[in-house]
Amino acid sequence: MRKQSSQRDREKGPKLPTLGQLKSVWNGVLKDPQAQDALDRLEQAGFKIKHLSPNRLTFRHPCWADYIAAIPFLENLPARRRFHRGSTMRKYRPLVKVLRDFGRQLDDRFSSVSLITTKDTDIELGEDLRGLAAGAASFIEKFISWDWCVIERNPRNSLIAELRWTIRARTGKPHDRELSAVIDAACRAAGRKELYLDNTTLDRIEKRDGETRVKSFRRLKFNAGLSPTPKSMSTRNPKKRR
């Protein structure tokens, strides 16, 4: 039952908090005594973020205030990889030919093409539709031939891992106690259950997040024929006895 629920959540995409929720949680973090001490120690170590303020919801350009404030709202969904083979789209190849024929008929001065809606109303055809048909045919022809890989990382743990990695890169240490204190303060400000992240748990989160990327990259190269069998897929040969 839990597996089906996780799959439905994946299909809908992660539920992102609003900008107002992010700002409210971040203000709560800044007012939290334990978080204040933790932020001061991080600032002394070289990771200064107290002056920041949440300003976006995409998380494509890191703003650490966004990351910290969003962690309580993001779900702890398992990471997964989905591989798509272009060969599965062969049945749509006739659509490319139909689109190209449609575009050629639009350019033929001796042909008359009309679009009929369900209400039997003629729609005028213009230059935009001619270019649209040709462009759509070219894109679909490429799209149905592509192999691709979708890497769906754990939303919550992904932010935690990136935060920990950045703190270590800037200060020379992961500062797990301070990071955990700030995240717990964010959870309290959001009215959510605290995570109680010790160094062992944070190690595991960061390691798994990195492994998800590496394994997906190996599998993608293998499927593209650019590398030998991935380690996770290989079998060991027994050693020969002398």
Record keyword descriptors for this entry.
single chain, 242 residues, mainly alpha, two-stranded antiparallel sheet, 9 helices, 55% helix, elongated, disordered C terminus
Instruction: Give the averaged pLDDT, no decimals.
Output: 81
Q: What structural class should be given to the helix and strand makeup?
A: mainly alpha
Total DSSP E strands: 4
Order of helices and strands: HHHHEHEEHEHHH
Strand arrangement within the widest β-sheet reads 1-4
DSSP helix fraction: 40-55%
Structure, described:
With 242 residues, the chain is mainly alpha-helical. The chain is built from nine helices and four strands; from the N terminus they run H-H-H-H-E-H-E-E-H-E-H-H-H. The chain has helices spanning 2-12, 19-31, 33-45, 64-70, 93-107, 127-143, 155-171, 176-189, 199-223, and strands at residues 80-84, 115-116, 122-123, 148-152.
